[in-house]
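User: structure tokens for this one?
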Amino acid sequence: MTMTSAHPHSGTDLAPSTPTGPTGGTPEEDHGGGDPRLTGEAPISGPKPIAVLLYSDNVDVRTKVRMAIGKRLAADLPPVVWTEVATPPAVVSAVDAGGFDVLVLDGEAAPAGGMGLCRQLKEEIFECPPVLVLTGRPQDAWLATWSRADAAVPHPLDPRALAEAVTVLARRRRG
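Assistant:
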């Protein structure tokens, strides 16, 4: 497709041109020459965020966990980035792909609880990230031990205990 000139009777066809920025260069040149640090595609500096995978089939549980932990675990740690999943296959796929610092698994989730998933992940994933299991009640701590979870917090969720457990696991993972 060709574009005709805006000048009447010019008799020439114009090819679509490259858009220009305010200085006459391309928008990429005007905004850092395509440098990913200046275009927002890469962080300028700072440590990698704490990546947390959160599994529960219950959206309310996921919301409570996110609200308890917040955007940052501690002043000396980078911000938290959440990946929420609601199905066991999504958990296995995401953890297998890697990149997580901490896994938070709801032991009361259905059809597969977080404790069974934890045991599966610990047996199948090389260098599995530390796992926090949310148990149905304090008396279920022995099940968390069976699942090979690194920590357990019972329902109803205590925001301080939850944030402390995730902070300890994140620090352990980061060294």
